[in-house]
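Comment thread on ticket #2218

A.B. wrote:
> Attaching the input chain for the structure job we discussed in standup.
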Amino acid sequence: ITYRLYTGEPDLPHIISLIASELSEPYVIYTFRYFLTQWPHLSFLAYTPESPTPIGVIVCKQSFHESSTKGYIAMLSVDKRYRKRGIGVTLVKISMEAMKLDGVEEISLETEHDNAPALSLYESLGFIREKRLYRFYLNGKDAFRL
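C.D. wrote:
> Ran it. Output below, let me know if you need it in another format.
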């Protein structure tokens, strides 16, 4: 598996397709552009040698709050056929390292309350459940903020 930074608009259709096929939240193109144009250095894609399209993607941002810089994992998706191979963990670690280099002191995210694989992945990397967010997603599901 190879990993690389988001490089621009040609990557966008692949990212949209992968996110739309794997995540329940329906994001519009403007949401993708918001993250990818402002923080392209915090978004990474995963590829197999035999695939010209990505099999995994992570999209992140950072912002300054009060007296610290905070990171945010907005989207993480790995094609179902390639799960349980450490791709998601690697994408999160790469993005966390990029955020740390930019001075990020804290990273947060949300995931569906019943998404056991995602919760397990994030908790294995040191994330803790901070708060339950009721009816957070458009599909009516609750989320955990980690």
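A.B. wrote:
> Thanks. Noting for the ticket: The two ends are 27 Å apart (CA to CA).
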